[in-house]
Each structure stands twice: as C-alpha cells, then as structure tokens.
Specification:
Radius of gyration: 14 Å
Strand content: 25-35%
Distance between the termini: 5 Å
Order of helices and strands: EHHHHEEHEE
CATH topology: Ribosomal Protein L22, Chain A
CATH architecture: Alpha-Beta Complex
Mean pLDDT: 90
Largest sheet: 3 strands, antiparallel
CATH class: Alpha Beta
Low-confidence stretches: none
Helix content: 25-40%
Strand order of the largest sheet: 1-5-4
Number of helices: 5
Amino acid sequence: MIYGIGVDIVHVDRLERWEQVPGLIERFFHPQEIIDAENRKSSRNVSLAARFAAKEALGKALGTGLKGINLKDIQVVSNHNGKPDIRVHGTADRAVKATGASGIFLSMTHERDNAVAVVILEI
C-alpha cells in the first residue's frame, strides 16, 4: 500500500549559485553524494540537482516536508546498473520510521537544465 508520493523539480542553475556560498553544498549533501557527483565530471551539477530533487520529493512523500530533517541524512546512491535508491540516516531514518513505511522507491531524470525526482513510500 502507498503511504505517500512526492515529486520535485530543480533547475540546475540553482547548484551553480549554491557553489558560490562556502559550505552550502556540504550542508545539503551526504559526503558520498558529493564524491559520486565529482566523479561525473561535466554532469556534476545535474547529478546534484537530481539528488536535491529526490530529497525534496521524500519530504513531500512523508507529508511533512523536510522540517527537522538534516538533508545530509538523505543519501541517494546508485546500484551497479545505475538505478537510484535512497538511504536514510539519523533524522531522515526517524522520520521514515515514524510513518511505518517499509519501502522507499525513487526515480530520477534530467533534461538539459532541469532534474526531476519522484519518491513513493510504501507501507
């Protein structure tokens, strides 16, 4: 059964503006997400934009937004085939557990200047 669905879109230019603020990228992203994005070279900002959209979409699926959740506690990872998944830690883990959700499903896409993510929480 579905508990919640969330969707979000992020314009890639937002990441370029965030890079101008010292420490902002590190505040929003899990350290491994930053490393993975750096390995993508020219698509770094698209990768981070999609991951930020996933974080926002999770907040919407929770039905509470991201209030009280440390964004670094939401980590987007990719399996060996490139399929994205969400790992939750700390504040995000507690928020997901409070819903009784047993599964988190994530889909992400991007086209030039925009990145989109959809999250489904399953009970």
